[in-house]
Amino acid sequence: MQEIHTQAKEKMEKTIASLQYEYAAIRAGRANAAILEKIAVDYYGVPTPVEQMAAVSVPDARTLMIQPWDKSTLKAIEKAILASDIGINPQNDGTSIRLNFPPLTEERRKELVKNVSKYAEEAKVAVRSIRRDAIDKLKAAKKAGDLTEDDLKDAEKKMQDLTDAYCKKVDEVSAAKDKEIMEI
């Protein structure tokens, strides 16, 4: 019973980590290197993350600078950024690429907040799915005679409490991202 609870808790932690990873890639008006994590550059036929091909720095709050270690990859990195959905045009000066983050419009902020809410709801669905799977395992254990009816009820209550705690955590992470988007 404890093992099922521990596995469910680990999976819920991973759901929160995944949500935070998704939120890190949301452009909130501030330069953030995490936005490049999902961009893969075609490097000799192999999709390669930008971070493995270049030094990424943040010279100021609204600028991201990408300096490739191999200057011949400059065009490929620029092409990958243009093909991505980050919505920023790279500026290539021959040695580095600059990404200038424009201030967010009110309309774009609201759109980002909707995305934040969508990711939060997906995370809650994932947490509830983990709870359902764990409860199914507990019921199977009861059917096999490993648990009594009272043990099953206690375990289901613990699982529900864990689910509620993680749904609350999702709400907290989501509210922090909403606040970050609306303040900028």
Number of helices: 4
The ordered H/E elements are HEEEEHEEHH
Strand order of the largest sheet: 3-4-6-5
How far the N terminus sits from the C terminus, by CA atoms, comes to 46 Å
Number of strands: 6
Structural Rg? 22 Å
Strand content: 5-15%
Mean pLDDT value: 87
Structural class computed from helices and strand pairing: alpha+beta
What is the percent of helical residues? 55-70%
Chart the SSEs and their pairings.
Layout: H1 2-24, E1 40-43, E2 46-49, E3 54-60, E4 63-68, H2 74-83, E5 91-92, E6 97-100, H3 106-143, H4 149-183
Antiparallel strand pairs: 1-2, 3-4, 4-6, 5-6
Helix pairs in contact: 1-3, 1-4, 3-4
Structure in words:
With 184 residues, this protein is an alpha+beta fold. Helices cover 58% and strands 15% of the residues. It is built from four helices and six strands. The chain has helices at residues 2-24, 74-83, 106-143, 149-183, and strands spanning 40-43, 46-49, 54-60, 63-68, 91-92, 97-100. It is elongated. The termini are far apart.
What would a concise description of this structure say?
The protein has 184 residues and is an alpha+beta fold. Helix content is 58%, strand content 15%. The longest helix is centred in the last third of the chain and has 38 residues, at 106-143.
